[in-house]
């Protein structure tokens, strides 16, 4: 028998399967004949055994119709008994369902998904030969569904396409035909289709499937050699509860000034230079609260810009870079607690800046965006083998097991973190980052005293 024969008969059996679903499943989970069909079989009386017999008779009729279609199309057909068995297999598969628990790092019950083959009948595939016919759950069809159909909780990564490189004053930027690159949450296609198919085939009621958090790709069509532009690290912060003017300034700083900035190899990045001029109402900044003279809060243009500089600072640390100039806020600001309490960076043009040096041999690219009340800053570049851990937070009452023994521990109004950079050649560089405030909430240290010291970067979407 030729391969073409097998393909055609397989297609016909699949068509018959859909016909079977149309005729039978619409009325019940199993292929129970309709009232009209039962009256067309007067030699059966009503009862459990006879209903089962009616079901079998119904399958036989479907098998005969299927056999005739296969014979007309390819000249031969498997025996009726074989086709009936195949349809019974299909009917059994249609009763199978499983609850899929989708997991991401840090969240073992990210989403649940109720899967049953009555909802996804095309996941079944017929396998035909002149003497045999079977239905099975097909991994390839599940894989096609997972990669093409939108699903709750699955987020496709967003690509950034660079079309040009520009320079204004001392700041280089890229021009993109899309928005900033954004990460996605997708299925691990080496695991998910196989796991779902196995659960449905074996009748397993639950199955856990890990999802993959993947970075948004960056494509360079500018013609300017910028290196590989792979995600090196990212920082996050949350401005939930901010007044409208502050929110406006945060978004303006991120979207108009941080996003798309390029840092040439060997160059120093200056946050203040990205602002493109004085922070004034005339330059589009709104009045919001700003700290003056250590403890004084005043309305001034640009209040909230430090949310952007703080997030940039976190991205710098996570990407494996040190810093040249940085200062924390004099007052503890609750907007900066999430994703790295104590890792903040205040800026004030002409007085205080946030700077670091690109000590790699290739360009670095900032991709930054806001989503809801959260800010994300990502740094792309060419990997050189270094890794970075940012460990903390440490308070005066913390366990200092992971803290460098030669360094001073934080005082009661301080929060410390430890950055540990490991280079490709095995060299290791440690730096303690200490933030000193006028005071700290009494409950803050207690809140973190049982926390396991870990990287400040959080992958939650």
From TrEMBL:
Domain of life of the native organism: Bacteria
Pfam family, one: VanW
InterPro entries, A to Z: Glycopeptide_resist_protein, Vancomycin_resist_VanW
Protein's name according to its UniProt entry: von Willebrand factor A
């Amino acid at each position: 028998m030729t391969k073409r024969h097998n393909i055609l008969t397989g297609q016909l059996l699949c068509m018959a399967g859909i016909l079977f679903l149309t005729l039978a499943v619409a009325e019940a989970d199993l292929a129970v004949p309709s009232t009209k069909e039962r009256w067309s079989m007067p030699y059966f009386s009503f009862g459990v055994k006879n209903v089962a017999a009616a079901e079998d008779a119904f399958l036989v009729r479907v098998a005969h119709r299927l056999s005739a279609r296969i014979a007309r199309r390819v000249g031969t057909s498997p025996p009726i008994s074989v086709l009936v068995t195949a349809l019974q297999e299909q009917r059994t598969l249609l009763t199978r369902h499983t609850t899929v628990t989708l997991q991401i790092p840090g969240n073992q019950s990210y989403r649940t998904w109720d899967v049953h083959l009555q909802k996804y009948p095309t996941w079944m595939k017929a396998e035909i030969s002149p003497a045999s016919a079977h239905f099975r759950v097909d991994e390839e069809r599940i894989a096609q569904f997972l990669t093409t159909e939108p699903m709750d909780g699955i987020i496709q990564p967003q690509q950034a396409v660079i079309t040009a490189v520009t320079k204004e004053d001392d700041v280089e930027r890229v021009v993109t035909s899309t928005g900033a690159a954004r990460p996605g949450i997708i299925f691990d296609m080496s695991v998910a289709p196989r796991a779902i198919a196995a659960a449905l085939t074996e009748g397993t009621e639950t199955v856990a499937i890990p999802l993959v958090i993947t970075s948004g790709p960056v494509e360079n069509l500018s013609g300017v050699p910028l290196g590989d532009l792979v995600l090196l690290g990212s920082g996050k912060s949350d401005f939930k509860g901010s007044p409208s003017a502050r929110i406006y300034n945060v978004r303006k700083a991120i979207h108009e000034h941080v996003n798309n900035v390029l840092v040439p190899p060997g160059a120093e990045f200056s946050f203040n230079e990205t602002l493109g001029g004085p922070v004034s109402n005339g330059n589009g900044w709104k009045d919001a609260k700003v700290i003056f003279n250590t403890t004084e809060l005043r309305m001034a243009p640009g209040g909230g810009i430090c949310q952007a500089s703080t997030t940039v600072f976190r991205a710098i640390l996570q990407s494996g870079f040190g810093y040249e100039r940085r200062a924390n806020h004099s007052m503890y600001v609750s907007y900066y607690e999430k994703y790295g309490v104590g890792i903040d960076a205040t800026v004030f043009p002409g007085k205080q800046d946030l700077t670091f040096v690109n000590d790699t041999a290739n360009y670095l690219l900032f991709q930054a965006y806001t989503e809801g009340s959260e800010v994300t800053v990502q740094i792309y570049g060419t990997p050189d083998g270094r890794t970075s851990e940012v460990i903390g937070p440490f308070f005066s009452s913390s366990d200092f097991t992971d803290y460098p023994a030669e360094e001073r521990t934080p005082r009661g109004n301080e929060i410390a973190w430890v950055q540990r950079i490991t280079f490709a050649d095995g060299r290791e560089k440690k730096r303690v980052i200490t933030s000193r405030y006028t005071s700290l909430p009494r409950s803050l240290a207690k809140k973190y005293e049982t926390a396991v010291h870990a990287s400040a970067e959080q992958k939650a979407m």
